[in-house]
Amino acid sequence: MTKPGSEPPTILQNRLFYQGRKFSFDVNTLRLPNGVEGDWECIRHPGGALVIPVTSEGKLVLVKQYRFAVAGRTLEFPAGTIEPNEDPAETVKREIEEETGYRAHRWQKLGQFILAPGYCDEIIYAFLAQDLEKLETPPQQDEDEDIETVLMTPKELEQAILDGEPVDAKTISSFLLAKPFLNI
């Protein structure tokens, strides 16, 4: 006898509702192993990569970025969407320079996590970046981004999270992965 939940549902129909620049949205009609049928929506995303930059003074380099969905600025570690056929390590190397004007010379992969499995298949790959160099001429930011660079100690970021400041979930999750390496 198989355990409940060990059998995958049967996909009866898949309908693409929207194909956007960064993600798609589809609706799937499924039959669960218990025979129940229903529709499940899913955002299909190519994945993202996030970097936790740490200066030689032990400060974290974050960005405050305007996010339309929440109608405000959120505190985040630099991150970006993985381009087709791109390794997540290349994504973070590009994003740290574009978003903060820093380049890192020492990298460590921290892990990966599923961002919102209830409705999205996006996986975030997290990296620690150290031995930072401030670029003399930082690259131009993407024209659709409104970003401010912020330096914080790990304790300041932890307090901002605990105080309920608008810090996004990928930053909070990645901070947890990085804490053993941050001497706090």
Detailed description of the structure:
By secondary structure, this protein is α+β, with helices and mostly antiparallel strands. It folds into 2 domains: 8-42; 46-179, Nucleoside Triphosphate Pyrophosphohydrolase (Alpha-Beta Complex), CATH 3.90.79.10. It contains 3 helices and 10 strands. The protein has helices at residues 88-100, 154-162, 169-178; strands at residues 10-19, 24-31, 37-44, 48-53, 60-67, 72-76, 79-81, 102-114, 123-134, 147-152. Strands 7-4-9-8 form a 4-stranded mixed β-sheet, sandwiched between helices. The longest helix has 13 residues, at 88-100. Its EC number is 3.6.1.13. Keywords: Hydrolase. GO terms for molecular function: ADP-ribose diphosphatase activity. InterPro entries: NUDIX_hydrolase-like_dom_sf (IPR015797), NUDIX_hydrolase_CS (IPR020084), NUDIX_hydrolase_dom (IPR000086).
